[in-house]
Amino acid sequence: MDNRLLEKEKKAYVSLYKKDVLPYSLILCAILAELIYNIMVLDVMPVSYLMGATVMINIVILFVLFTCAVKVNIYHKIWAVIAVFLGIYMLVRMSVLVPLVLKPYARHTEIMAANLLGGVMLLAAGFISLKHANRRQRLQEQLQQSEAS
């Protein structure tokens, strides 16, 4: 019985030090989709003051996405929630902001596809990371309880 418990604890300790690779990779792919969106929308967008605002907003989004990828890799729940909200933002942007405000006349389907792909990847990364972080937290609590007794 003690040997089996020790083996389980060893596996638990090993899993505590693993990086959360899948959500990290998904967010990096979402960054790529965001870059594709930026390039395409700026290429077809009419020159106006909205172009500068779009660039500034997208710089902030790219910075937050990169920070999110790094933090999700080490199981931060808050950043997983931020990834979910950014995924929702991308989907809303795809259906409301791009067609009604930016009004790109060309490459509409490519812009929508980049937004859809990025949004879905961010939603998946956020929910997977939340699941992994909750499981990791339960594991830490179990280890602390077993050490206390």
From TrEMBL:
Which UniProt keyword terms apply here?
A: Membrane, Transmembrane, Transmembrane helix
Q: Which domain of life is it from?
A: Bacteria
Question: Which residue ranges does UniProt annotate as crossing the membrane?
Answer: 21-41, 47-66, 78-100, 112-130
- This chain belongs to the protein called Uncharacterized protein
